[in-house]
Amino acid sequence: MESTSTTNCESIKQNQAINIVFRKLKAAFPQRYKSVFPTIDEENTSKKQWRKSLNQYSPERIVKAAEQAIRQAKYFPDLIDIQNHCKLTHKECGLPSAEVAYREACFATDQSAEGNWTHSAVYLAAKATGWHLLRTEEQRIVFPVFQRNYGILCNRVIDGEDLTADLPKALENHQLSAAEQAEQYSNQQLKQQMQAQGINPESGRRAFEHLKQQLQKQ
């Protein structure tokens, strides 16, 4: 009986949290809210769907996530936005920043899984990057490779996925060396930066090369 009572109490709190979220959405986006939920039936149906999808999170976290989503949203936050804000942060998961993790990997005295790692994701990212590469290559070459591997693993931690599954290959041409992979990854990042600034990387090749040289000097 006590277990059933506890479950019912949690269910009530979940319902209350969803109701609070919908009230906050309505207050923040009144016109858009009417467009998304034009009738009471559609509103209630959506509440049931949201409650089911957010069931794994505490009521407090759901409300906090909604408040964060509303503050940061340019448009009406949807269920996916709320779910993303409900996810644990790197800090909550005990994950260091990519820079800190990289230094830990480079200077690790024990390269085994049983070593004194801040988080297993650091060890797995280092292993995937390659111990020899971490010890011998310049940071500008190896850090992008490590950062990519570590980022994938961090996302797995946050999403509750299996960390031991193989990491996807960064490039279709698996014959490229790690240094060449890092170079291509770096070029892709630069192109994205230029595109974000409204610069065409192809027509602005001189600007692309100049920006690349400047970053390599850092």
Outline of the structure:
This protein is an all-alpha fold and 218 residues long. It has helices at 2-28, 30-36, 40-53, 59-72, 79-86, 98-106, 120-129, 131-136, 139-159, 178-196, 205-217.
The helix count comes to: 11
Outline the biggest β-sheet: none
Determine the strand fraction and express it as a percent band: under 5%
Alpha-carbon Rg, integer: 23 Å
Described by the principal axes of the CA atoms, the overall outline is elongated
Overall strand count: 0
Textual characterization of the structure:
The chain has 218 residues and is mainly alpha-helical. Among the domains are: 14-87; 93-165, no CATH class. The chain is 68% helix and 0% strand. The protein has eleven helices and no strands. It has helices spanning 2-28, 30-36, 40-53, 59-72, 79-86, 98-106, 120-129, 131-136, 139-159, 178-196, 205-217. Helix 6 (98-106) packs across helix 7 and helix 7 packs across helix 9 (139-159). It is elongated, with a radius of gyration of 23 Å.
